Amino acid sequence: MHKRHRPRVHQFDYSACYFMIDLDELDQMASEVSFFSRNKFNLVSFYDKDYGDKSGGDLKEHARSLLTQAGHTGEIKTIKLLCLPRLFGYVFNPIAVYYCYGTDKKLSAIIYEVRNTFGEQHSYVVPLQETERNRQNQVHHCDKKLHVSPFFDQRGGYVFRHRVPDEKLGLFIRYQDVDGTPLLHAALNGQKVPMKSSIIVHYCLKFPLMTFKVIAGIHWEALKLWLKGLKISRKPPAPKAFFSKSSSLLRNLKQDRVS
Fold first, then answer.
1. Greater confidence, 97 or 213?
2. Which bin fits 212, alpha (ψ -120 to 50), beta or left (φ > 0)?
3. In sequence order, what are the beta bridge partners of 107?
């Protein structure tokens, strides 16, 4: 669900199928699950070069490198990536989320990897303090670094609020102005299902054009906003830094409550 609050109210929602993938299990999944492949074409496929620095290199090492540069200490044992895979060879991920766990199996850090339709991306890296690692409900604040919508300028920031995924997923994003006024809310809700061949077939039948629909839907909704009279902001240069370190605690949770 996306709901834009200013300067005009505009809301839409749609169904999708996201994957939560343990990066250590990719090859096993590809060998055991029909119609799913890693780095080669299939009905559903995962290409390493679609994520991280797009080099096709080790995504765990990429995530660990970002965390180290952001000042995170402690070993990262497991990383689970919430993302859209390629469907019939195509994908566009507006956001992919890395859940990073330590050797004690507790959540240790989160990386929000955000992309725009101009081929640019930026990662918001959130190392967790020791007192925050046991929290099921996570709230993070990130200053906006990447130009995403042509109808918003570069001001403001994001509030990411969600439960650590288990049987259910609930991720809520609030984009707000510098004074805390909400500009947009986005939400992703999901129910966990096991990864197996029958699910792949069901996924392809239920969402045959899902990954194409994501990018087409972005432009379709943009057209409707333009027809509503919204002015287009000039696109700023891409951020020089590949990532930024973000805070894992908010000073005023009441102000940033997601509605």
1. 97
2. alpha
3. 101
